[in-house]
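Researcher: We're teaching a course module on how sequence relates to structure. For the next exercise, students receive a sequence and then see the predicted structure as tokens, so they can try to spot secondary structure elements on their own. Here is the exercise chain.
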Amino acid sequence: MTDVRPLVAIVCANSLTVVGLKQLLQSVMPTIEVEAFASASELQEGQPERFFHYFVDISIFLTDRSFFSAHRHRTIVLTTAPEHAAQLADFHCVCVTGGEKAFVKSLLQMMRRGHPQGEHISHGAQQRPQLSPREVEVLSLLARGFINKEIADRLCISLTTVITHRKNIVEKLGMRSVSALTIYAVMNGYVDLEQI
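Model: And here is the predicted structure for the students to work with:
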């Protein structure tokens, strides 16, 4: 029996956006595969029914709105301003220009609304590495936006110890960015979405 991995499409002509989003999605949900397309026509040629979700740049979305309207339940629009979401109320929207923390929170909120019990979202929880209780505390504070010095002060440990715990967390999870660690912490119940 072959292992079928969920597919996600990124439809965007900006290669930096594609690389960043792809890395973020795969670090949080290691069981997914991500394919990138520079236009809606490329996506349509690539059998769009195969994909669980399409992350679509707003300019491509507006150019091919009829196609994405027909696939509304799969479409997540990457907007450049928060007010775009109000104009696109029938679609899931994630603003990509509000800073890393805001993007992560928006992505998590969208996932929670679309998959409230986590169904259909495979995020690798079954193969989750075992973090020590102290590593969980450090990860939780990191996800809530605290810097190393603040974490050391809150946990009454040295700065060196915090750095060691962070290094161990990164090695165990294979995630380097704070965004990926934050999403991992929320998805695995180490921190509540409202705390970030």
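Model: If you want an answer key for the exercise: The beta strands are 7-11, 33-37, 51-57, 75-79, 92-95. The radius of gyration is 18 Å.
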